[in-house]
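User: I'm curious whether this sequence folds into something compact or stays loose and floppy. Could you predict its structure so I can see for myself?
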Amino acid sequence: MISSRDTDAELSQRSGLAVQTKAGFGVGQIAGQLFRDAPSLLLLFYLTSILGIEPALAGAVIFIPKVLFGAGFDLTVGLVSDRYAAQFARRRWLLIGAIAAPFAMLGAFTVPEGSQFLQLAWVFISFSFYMAVFSTFSVPYLAQFAEMTDSPAERTELMAWKHGFTGMGVLLGSAGTPILIHILGGGRSAYIWSIGIIGLISSAALFIAWYSAGKISDRKNTARPLEFKELLKVFSDRRFVILCLSAVIMTVAAGISYASFAFFVTFAMGRSDAFVQIGIISTIMAVVVMLGAPTWVYAAKWLGKKRTYILAATCHGLVLICWGSFADSPMYFAYVMAGLLALFNSGWGLIILSMLSDAIARSREERGENRAGAYSAVWSIIEKAGIAAGGTLVVGGILSYTGFDTEAAKQGVAQSVDAIQGIVLAYAFLPGIAKIVTAFLIWLFMPDDDLGKPAPVSFVDEG
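Assistant: Here's the prediction. I'll summarize afterward.
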């Protein structure tokens, strides 16, 4: 909402951001995507297939710090960034993340030689630090999207920039890193060198976002004293609660797919060049995500955000189920499936974040309090906990239950039929069904009036 108290400069900055500012701030999403993808795609596979740790144990030791400590860090950063926004601008949190990012990345993968207990303890401690660094920039970064403009349409455009750089993050992380690991020999040192490079890229992306955010005037701080009960107020927002419920299902599903992807390509698709193919598939996905984002901006204007989300999420689920049903098809089929997955992922991912920013902005307008940090903290917790639950506990449990053999994996021996069926279930069928369920949830319970519509309050003429 733009009030009469805003200056002309603030009005211009909040309602007509320069393209270079939008793009520069969007670059920060590269770091967010790399921090999300590195452990989701590679860490469980690294701990089991390279270090030989039993899947359920490896999954549990990642899950505990990711959920428990990650939630605590997100809550703390969210509340503190709200309370002290006037004294410590949100963009400064990005600078902290930029400095710490390479150390956090390396720590999680530089597991020392020794007993399994020592290795598990190392992962637990180093990954806890990883989650702390992730929180320092992910929560304030997301919160700023709801503060940068008062235009719902421009928030969708901002999310399109963010989602475009999500594709760049996928290209660098999910595509480039596996190929680099393959080129470097595929062993422990290959993982460490590759992750170190990813850490430096994350640092550079956050520096760019921090610099770009400095060109936007800060909103006046309206948060009340730092109290945990203030965080609970976000759950009185019905639209936000519905979005959160959908995000729980979606992020668990995403975590399952991410963590099982390398297993799916290696064992279900039977590829001896699995990491090369993962790189090619991820490249296709990244390019489609980057090119597809503008399409969904127009779709949202035409169909509305709710219908656009339902369309994209349903199609995404159907494509996953189709791919899992024909896992042994030729590679060109996999490439087509990858492109379709990326297209529909771009749709629901962009739209749900735009709806989230709308919900934060509407709450600020109606209640007179800027709780962007609290909203973003809750959302970040859901994303990280969902990814962790799906990508560690669920996948680790399915692999152990269906008989995945870590020794056979280390030696390059084929897995049993039951183990392969478990991998297909994890990568395709469970996530596919979850996405269709989420689309149904939004269809039934999200109000038909689009969140992008202005709240019933007065506006200053922008002309």
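Summary: The two ends are 15 Å apart (CA to CA). The longest helix spans residues 331-367.
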